[in-house]
Amino acid sequence: MDEILAKAGSQAVTFAIRSGISIASSYAIKTVATFVQKIPEEDATRLKRLREKLETRIEIVSAAIDLIRLVAAKGNTGLGSTLKLTKDLKEEIDQFDARISAITGNFNAKKNERDSIKAVEKYILDLLERIEEVIPVINLSLTTSGAKLSTALPQQVSPGRLLQASNYVTRNNDLFEEEGKNVQLGPVFALTLFSVFQNLTASESKARVTWKEDMRKALFSVWRRPSRDREYDYFLKIKESFDDGLYHDATEERVKELHFDIWQIVRLFFTASGKLLKLEERNSPVLVLKVDKNLKSPFVDDQGTSTEDIEWLAFGEYEASNESEESETDDADENYTSSAEELEETEVSSSIALLEYIIRLSSLQCNDQKSILQVHDERLSTYLNDENPNSIEGKKYDVEEVTTKLEKVKLHGTNS
């Protein structure tokens, strides 16, 4: 399915690239910072210098490691050995955090102060040495793979939509800090939901992908929720609305509703044309989400995705029927009237492009566990980038070329 969507010319971005190194190291560094406040000044000064050196080294190597993991996720098999090396380094950082936490947890200024200081210092020096060993290998891998970091804004990005989405995300951050409960991010999106199933041909060598409409009118919303283990955690809610111009028997039909965590989205596809779904009558944007329901925890990292529990969800802009159809039963009226009343009090949008950017930015905050205002430009560029070389981009026009064509038009008009 990934290959089919890529060949269709859709923009694509992989979300299963979590900044595990920087997250794990931040906890360890904070633990060391707390520890140095409890020890004599001379020892504290020495450990502070080591801690700052460690923090700098990890910050430098984290961006390179994230890039290696991204390139490997795109199918670069030559980075397999380096990827294993980065996994080992992450495990060592995790062990470092556990060891430092154990030392600080059992720290007693009268009984084991000297031993604790020596142990912390040794662990920091060992980890620094390990990072110094890894850096040349990482540099060599990046050089031979041809991968590079970029801070430039990708060409296909709409600055207006990006600013609008970032405004929603930052406002949601502020509101969540105030309320500390489930808070909706951005507007409710009125969309049409499609799901996919595949029919194999007789030779079973090719798959014919068929999309079917699951919800004529789906109300899509993104929510941030409190979490015991994570500062940034989001889930997506998709609820069917019977206020869609179709007949619904409320006695037999139930409103369908879907929920899944944002970290279960492993890939996103976006196209400006409904032809991606082979829906010729639709010429509006389409968003396709690859959801891995097999992922049970956001902490599952570098293990790839399953093939047995993948769900493909496609969303197109909801197109209201031109003919106003009246429901044949009062029950059906009641079923969707309450939903319509709820929407009157909520901001509603049908912009697929805005939803795409909201998902990209909230996924970034969820994976990196920091505000989008704090992430590095390279990391932000990774989440805004289009990784599909076959994507269809808008034609670029040269000013002189357009001017020349206009002059020709004027000349034809004069001669006639």
What class do helices, strands and sheet pairing give?
alpha+beta
Q: What's the domain count?
A: 2
Output the number of helix runs. Answer: 10
Helix content: 40-55%
Distance between the termini: 54 Å
The major pleated sheet works out as: 9 strands, mixed
Low-confidence stretches: 200-205, 323-333, 392-399, 410-416
Can you write the helix and strand succession as a string? Answer: HEHHHHHEEEEEEEHEHHH
Average pLDDT, all residues: 77
Strand content: 15-25%
User: What's the total number of strands?
Assistant: 9
| Rg, alpha carbons | 26 Å
The dominant shape is elongated
Short description:
The chain is of the alpha+beta class and 416 residues long. 46% of the residues lie in helices and 18% in strands.
Task: Give the arrangement of secondary structure elements.
Blueprint: H1 2-7, E1 11-14, H2 20-36, H3 41-73, H4 80-105, H5 113-145, H6 159-179, E2 183-200, E3 207-224, E4 234-240, E5 257-261, E6 265-271, E7 286-292, E8 310-317, H7 330-344, E9 348-349, H8 352-368, H9 377-384, H10 399-415
Parallel strand pairs: 2-9
Antiparallel strand pairs: 1-6, 2-3, 2-8, 3-4, 4-5, 6-7, 7-8
